[in-house]
């Protein structure tokens, strides 16, 4: 997925969903629920939230998820719309009106009326003033007079514990923005599932406000929640949707909206990691870590370090203050695609370096770095060119999609000739040619001009950095490119 809008065709979607469903059936699992996340326009950080929501659902293995950043196009195709069992709304046009168009809106409303479920998240209730069908689906809307206090930690209390979404759930604490004063312009009947006290100390009303409600639109089941606020360029807001309570609410809500029942007790990652699909093998991918044996060694040595790096629970882990040093791949690469997932501790720092030479003392003397960082707590997170996903101290990320400490981030690095691309959590965040004027200008302003061997190699090792902090890796793989 790149920064450009993802226009989904019915043929492509059907092929992808058929493959996913076939794999699930072959493994004896229940056929996955077909979900579409609708996003692409929002005054909140939709690039971050939409992909996080997608991964939250995929991790349960209960859902086959597509994301559209261009709903006006995707929903205009009735064949596309008919493929899905639930829509996840992460779209808001109140700040800058952007309707989907008559055909797309008609297809959406007709699908819901015929039974496609809906989960509306946070500012989805800000959208589409005057679209009566939409307002009837969502019920409580952000309209004139609505507001919120400061972003803060509060408790969400289940109200209707007989409803499938809330059955068995206990109150949970979450950091979020707490809406108040929502209005019901279409007087849509709804059932309250959960609420939270909007304290006056936080800038609220001093009374309980709705946090989850269900509605019906024809045969369609709908759950709307004002939870899930993540503002643009706000690392402190990102945990609102990585909160375990929110993840559980989202997964259970989506399952209920699609099927009318709930089998997910609480959110957990049910996927199998450190494996390759047949398609990946055919495309030339090779595992560098199978969950037990890393295909790495200490820099300038023949084996993995005796301390500092450990394998545990299917993860390759650098321990805090482990003093194991940097590790490198067994082979060298010229043009390649490298992928992994990383999870850094609070305040942590690490990196993935490439085209590293053992002619010198450290990998960073020659190898450019894809930064690994807790952006919220490390000082480097305050500088655009040293945040997670950057080409370290050279090129900032194009979008802010790094995830909080303790969450898994998906990284991909593509090197072809002098072109460097970094991908983070589904987005292309760096794309630069090292022979370009832009790179030359960035280089002059960086720390690297004093290091004459930096970025001089066209072939070298891929290194995982020991920066003294706890960082975990999984799903590490590589393939050579022509």
- Average pLDDT: 95
- The side-by-side strand order for the widest beta sheet comes to 2-1-3-4-11-10-9-6-7
How many angstroms separate the termini? 22 Å
Number of helices: 10
CATH superfamily of the largest domain: Class I glutamine amidotransferase (GATase) domain
Query: What class, by secondary structure content?
Result: alpha+beta
Assign the CATH class of the largest domain.
Answer: Alpha Beta
The portion of residues forming beta strands comes to: 25-35%
The low-confidence parts are 1-7, 9-15
Helix content range? 10-25%
Radius of gyration: 24 Å
The number of distinct structural domains comes to: 2
Instruction: Assign an overall shape.
Output: elongated
Main beta sheet, described? 9 strands, mixed
Number of strands: 24
Q: What is the fold-level CATH name, i.e. the topology of the largest domain?
A: Rossmann fold
Question: Which architecture name of the largest domain does CATH use?
Answer: 3-Layer(aba) Sandwich
């Amino acid at each position: 997925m790149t920064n450009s809008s993802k226009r989904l065709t019915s043929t492509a979607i059907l092929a992808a969903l058929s493959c996913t469903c076939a794999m699930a059936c072959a493994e004896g699992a229940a056929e996955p629920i077909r979900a579409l996340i609708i996003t692409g326009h929002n005054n909140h950080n939709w690039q971050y939230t939409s992909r996080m929501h997608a991964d939250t659902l995929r991790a349960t293995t209960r859902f086959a998820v597509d994301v559209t950043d261009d709903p006006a196009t995707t929903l205009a195709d009735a064949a596309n719309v008919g493929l899905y069992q639930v829509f996840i709304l992460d779209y808001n046009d109140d700040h800058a009106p952007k309707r989907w168009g008559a055909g797309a809106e008609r297809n959406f409303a007709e699908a819901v009326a015929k039974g496609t479920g809906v989960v509306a998240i946070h500012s989805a209730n800000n959208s589409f003033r005057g679209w009566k069908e939409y307002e009837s689906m969502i019920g409580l809307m952000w309209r004139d007079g609505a507001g919120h206090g400061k972003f803060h930690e509060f408790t969400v209390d289940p109200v209707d514990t007989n409803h499938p979404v809330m059955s068995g759930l206990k109150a949970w604490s979450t950091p979020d923005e707490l809406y108040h004063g929502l209005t019901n312009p279409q007087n849509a009947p709804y059932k309250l599932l959960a609420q939270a006290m909007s304290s006056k100390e936080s800038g609220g009303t001093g009374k309980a406000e709705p946090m989850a409600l269900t509605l019906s639109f024809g045969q369609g089941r709908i759950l709307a929640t004002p939870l899930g606020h993540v503002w643009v360029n706000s690392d402190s807001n990102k945990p609102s949707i990585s909160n375990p309570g929110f993840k559980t609410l989202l997964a259970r809500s989506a399952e209920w909206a699609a099927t009318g029942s709930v089998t997910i007790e609480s959110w957990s990652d049910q996927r199998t990691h450190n494996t390759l699909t047949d398609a990946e093998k055919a495309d030339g991918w090779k595992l560098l870590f199978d969950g037990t044996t890393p295909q790495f060694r200490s820099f300038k040595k023949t084996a993995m370090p005796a301390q500092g790096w450990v394998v545990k629970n299917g993860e390759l882990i650098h321990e805090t203050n482990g003093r194991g040093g940097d590790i490198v791949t067994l082979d060298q690469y010229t043009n390649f695609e490298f992928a992994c997932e990383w999870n850094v501790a609070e305040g942590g720092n690490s990196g993935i370096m490439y085209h590293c030479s053992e002619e010198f003392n450290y990998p960073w003397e020659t190898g450019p770095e894809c930064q690994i960082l807790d952006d919220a707590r490390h000082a480097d997170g305050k500088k655009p060119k040293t945040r997670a996903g950057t080409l370290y101290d050279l090129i900032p990320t194009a979008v802010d999609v790094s995830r909080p400490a303790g969450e898994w981030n998906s990284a991909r690095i593509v090197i072809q000739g002098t072109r460097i691309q970094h991908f983070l959590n589904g987005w292309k965040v760096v794309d630069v040619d090292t022979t370009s004027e832009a790179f030359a200008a960035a280089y002059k302003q960086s720390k690297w001009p004093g290091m004459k061997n930096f970025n001089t190699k066209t072939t070298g090792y891929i290194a995982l950095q020991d920066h003294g902090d706890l960082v975990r890796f999984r799903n590490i793989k590589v393939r050579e490119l022509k």
